[in-house]
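Title: Prediction job returns without error message
Component: structure pipeline
Severity: low
Priority: P3
Assignee: unassigned

Description:
Job completed but the reporter wants confirmation the result is attached to the right record. Sequence as submitted:
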Amino acid sequence: MKSAALFVIFLALAIFLATEARHLHCGKSLTRFIHKVCKAPCQNEEDFDFATYACTHFITSEYVRKQCCPNTF
C-alpha cells in the first residue's frame, strides 16, 4: 500500500515538472505564457534578451514572474 502511494506522489511530481517547467516558449507561446503569469506584457528593463533565453532554455512561471513582473505579486 505504501509503495502505491509513493508511486502516485512520484507520478504527480513527474507530471507537474513535465507540464510546468519543461516547455520552451518562443514567439506567441512566450507572449501567452507571460500574459498568463503577469496579466500584462513583460516589464523587463534590463539589457537581457529574455525572449531568446526563454526560447532556448526551460523556464518556469516563477522565473517569468521574477524577470517580467517582480513588483506585481
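Comment from assignee: result matches the submitted record. The radius of gyration is 15 Å.
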